[in-house]
Write a structure and sequence with these properties.
Layout lengths: L9 H19 L21 H10 L7 H16 L5 H17 L2 H26 L5 H81 L3 H29 L17 H10 L3 E7 L5 H21 L4 E9 L2 E9 L13 H12 L3 E7 L2 E9 L7
Parallel strand pairs: 1-2
Antiparallel strand pairs: 2-3, 3-5, 4-5
Helix pairs in contact: 1-2, 1-4, 2-3, 2-4, 3-4, 4-5, 4-6, 5-6, 6-7, 6-9, 6-10, 8-9, 9-10
């Protein structure tokens, strides 16, 4: 593929045109940098200064897109100008090329050009003065400083400020991006937390409602239907209370309801009683001491969700819950009868297992669930150190 050349900047074209016209005007008025009789003038033709002027002006459109090429050609034009009567516009245009070479050139050029022009200034001032034994030889170095060193130093200073501003802009953009990423992560984490709470709060009650409503519709027994409706009403009320509690958790404290306290392991008895009322034969074996609040809430929710799954999927009613504290870990184990191929009594999405696994992971613990022989086993190990919780 052919390489596409960058187009000159419009301002550079105006600079070239203005410099050329200005130089021609000064030439027409007879304004020169040196008299025609000057011993340095080797080319005495009246129109001779116009040639280096035209070459320097032609370099201006390249000052941004090819700064090094423009500077080299401009240097040749300046040397050419010194053997003619000279034009002040050629010198002025050359200082602009020197400035642009530092400002728009490569980083290497931006570092080297000021040093080179500085060395030329020193050499151009000291050597002539030493050879001629005349202090006026220092004026040559001063001229080099004005034509080359000053614009190069100015370009370096401007480039430094421009690079610093660009770096600050990039840092600000990166900071804004990191802040947005943190915000998205915080929102995602909060949505996951609310999803877990919502699922764990109401799934148990809704599963019981679905199972008992199915029983009430399938059995033509007024007594059984009445008992099922009583269980449905009890779970509906409990589910509504849980939803109100979740709404309280979501409020910012300015509403008309304060958030209720988080459930604790002391509430496992009531949870077991509710499971028994839903038809499960639950035994609870607990032996633990003081447990940090995050661990306590996670353990409660894991047991609650395990009972919900047992209500929907277990092959029989017998469920065993064990909680033991050993070696700085709260070990939770819930087992229920399992028979492959059984159809669930209520539909499920699998989000309950995901929520339990996330709760254990957030505390730095482990979680596993699956069949072991004729029993479905849910096991979680939660560290009791507060620092493990996120």
């Amino acid at each position: 593929m052919a390489r596409t050349l960058a187009r000159p900047h419009r301002d550079d074209l105006w600079i070239a045109a203005g410099g050329l016209l200005g130089g021609v005007l000064l030439w027409a008025l007879g304004i020169r940098t040196r008299a025609a009789s000057d011993s340095l003038v080797l080319w005495h033709a009246a129109w001779a200064p116009l040639l280096p002027l035209a070459l320097t002006a032609a370099c201006e459109p390249l000052r941004r897109i090819r700064p090094r090429t423009a500077l080299l050609a401009g240097t040749a034009a300046l040397v050419w100008d010194t053997v003619t009567a000279g034009s002040v516009v050629t010198v002025v245009l050359y200082t602009d090329l020197m400035y642009a070479a530092v400002l728009y050139g490569t980083p290497a050029s931006a570092r080297r050009i000021p040093w080179i022009t500085g060395m030329l200034t020193v050499v151009g001032g000291v050597v002539p003065a030493a050879l001629w034994r005349d202090p006026q030889g220092l004026l040559i170095g001063l001229g080099i400083a004005v034509v080359a060193l000053a614009p190069a130093a100015t370009g370096s200073l401007v480039r430094g400020h421009r690079d610093a501003a660009e770096a600050a802009r990039l840092r600000a953009g990166q900071t804004a991006l990191l802040a947005e990423m943190d915000r998205v992560q915080a929102v995602t984490a909060e949505r996951s937390r609310v999803a877990r709470e919502l699922h764990d709060m109401v799934a148990n009650h809704l599963s019981a409602i679905a199972i008992h409503s199915t029983a009430a519709l399938s059995l033509d027994d007024p007594g059984t239907s009445r008992d099922a409706l009583a269980v449905i009403r009890e779970n509906s009320v409990a589910g509504l209370d849980e939803m109100r509690r979740l709404i309280g958790l979501l409020r910012d404290g300015s509403g008309d309801r304060e958030p209720a306290a988080s459930p604790t392991l002391d509430g496992l008895g009531a949870l077991v009683d509710a499971a028994r009322a839903n038809g499960l034969d639950v035994t609870l074996d607990a032996g633990h001491g003081q447990v940090p609040v995050p661990v306590e809430l996670a353990a409660y929710r894991i047991v609650q969700e395990s009972l919900t799954n047992a209500l929907k999927h277990a092959a029989g009613p017998r469920v065993h819950i064990g909680l033991w504290q050993r070696d700085g870990v709260l070990d939770i184990r819930v087992t229920s009868p399992y028979r492959p191929g059984d159809t669930p009594r209520a539909p499920g999405s699998g989000s309950g297992l995901t929520g339990m696994r996330e709760r254990a992971a957030l505390l730095g613990g482990t979680f596993e669930a699956g069949p072991r022989g004729a029993r479905w086993t849910v096991r979680a190990a939660l560290p009791l150190t507060e620092g493990d919780a996120e």
